[in-house]
Amino acid sequence: MTEYGRGPGSEPWHPEDPLYGDGGWGGQQAQAGQQSPYGGQPQQYPEQQAQQNYGDWSNGGQSSYGGGQPQYDGYGHQHPEPQYDQYGQQQYDQQYAPQAQPQQGYDNGGWGSGAHPQAHYPADPSDPYGQQAGGYGAEQPDFYGTPEAYPPPEPPTRRRAEPEPQRTDWDPGPDEGEHAFFAGGDADEDDDAPGDGRGGREDRRTRGGGKPKKRRSGCACLVVCLVLGGGVAGVGYFGYQFYQDRFGAAPDYAGDGNGEQVTVTIPKGAGGSTIGQELKRQGVVKSVDAFIAAQQSNPRGKSIQDGVYTLQKEMSADSAIELLLSPKSRSNLIIAEGKRNADVYKLIDKRLEVKDGTTAKVAKSEYKSLGLPDWALNHKDVKDPLEGFLYPSSYSAAKGQKPEDVLKQMVARANEQYEKIGLEQKAEGLGLEGPWELLTTASLVQAEGKTHDDFRKMAEVIYNRLKTDNTETNQKLQFDSTFNYLMRQSKIHISESEINTNPDPYNTYYHRGLPPGPISNPGEEALQAALNPTEDGWIYFVATDGVKKTEFAKTHDEFLKLKDKFDASSGN
């Protein structure tokens, strides 16, 4: 073991000395020209040994004070020589010792008496070994026993011990908060040049030459701006559309239209959405939402009826609502209760603007293809199989439509109503042979009754006269309405010679029972009366005023009194 000497006047060295801890056994510098046989370290003797500072390896193992030759660290870099003031105290570069306290006890290169605290120097951030201190007893690599540790020395230079000026041109690189894309740097370019930890950025800051600093790419910034601008524009557009759809006013025309007329058909049971879609399809309104809004704001908006309407294109939704509620715009064909088919055919011809008799011919030749139910077909002596199936209601009928299309609407409406009231199921309970006779009875009630209050009594008269035990009329109905139907007339006064000599099956004065089929198109109230007649015993009736008033009797004597009353009112 090598013995360590003491300087003049120094106390013996102790392991507890605070200067011992960081240097380790490898912290000594050999005297020039002396090589130790142990581990490649020079042998030292007390008389030749100079007092050394066992410093931290992170500071390159520098001596506490300078000698006659420059000092080098483990990488071959020359350390600046120390400066001394007039009192023999060493001055340290503030870059490496900003917090060092002046140490007392230097006297002619020797240590004074007493222990002195060791100054702690912050590690250089650029030195990769600055934070790795050598441990006690650990084997340290010998940096000084090889020729690589002593490159040819450069001429010593002296540096003023003054603080390094503050950086004013600091520009963060990609690793300090700015992405390399905007900095213009290459992804593969290292921040620091090869060498020690301090040789990269510091050299770039101080050297005037070298590769110029890359600037931000204007093209890249332009692309980013365009992308961001396009995104903002897209978000704004879709946001505006969303606002318009949710909160904006619905698109609508202004005014009462452009003068171009159009025929619009509103189907039965259509709601606001269905009507609005049809109007938009025809070019009447601009949007369905505008029509629905106008309908909801109008107190009568929900009372729009089905049918054909004459409107104009490009109307405001409010104007379209007003026309749909006005009778002037309606092109509907209204079929009143009790109308005979012959009269309905004439109305259809007129509405469709076709030749008179066109619809009647279609009905006669194509009645089987118009939607009649099976129970309405193949009845004997029926003059018009469609009689009773042109149900009283409102229908769309306008120029350009075909007669068969209008007839199909009416037959379909009749089938719907008859199924609704159970016409087919209830006939047998009334003593009739199927729904055909029930429909015929309802048509007689409609034709003979003057008011709706008469309908149920009239139905009872029919059922009482059809009974097999009827001795008053011997099962003959004796209705003028059936004979008038036969004769296609509407007379109140019919001579007995006419009614007694005409054997046509529709002459109920001549034949017993019901006529071969309906004689008109009964409405809902006449149908309900046929289903639910009174039970008061009525068997006779007379229109005493000949127009609106009908009176009923249960016996023949009461009937004669009513007949005299009728004769008196009519002047007979």
Description:
The chain has 572 residues and is mainly α. It is 31% helix and 6% strand. It is built from 16 helices and ten strands. It has helices at residues 180-183, 201-206, 218-246, 272-281, 288-297, 317-324, 341-352, 358-366, 403-421, 423-426, 434-448, 455-466, 480-487, 496-501, 524-531, 556-570, and strands at residues 71-72, 78-79, 83-84, 90-91, 261-266, 307-312, 332-334, 394-396, 540-542, 551-553. β1 (71-72) and β2 (78-79) form a beta hairpin. α5 packs across α6, α11 packs across α12 (455-466) and α11 crosses α15. It is elongated. The protein starts with 70 loop residues before the first strand and ends with a helix.
Briefly characterize the structure:
By secondary structure, the chain is mainly alpha-helical.
Assembly state: single chain
User: What is the percentage of strand-forming residues?
Assistant: 5-15%
Helix content: 25-40%
Strand order of the largest sheet: 1-2
Q: Give the low-pLDDT segments.
A: 1-70, 86-120, 130-138, 173-209
Order of helix and strand elements from N to C terminus: EEEEHHHEHHEHEHHEHHHHHHHEEH
Query: Which class of secondary structure composition applies to the elements?
Result: mainly alpha
Averaging pLDDT over every residue, what do you get? 74
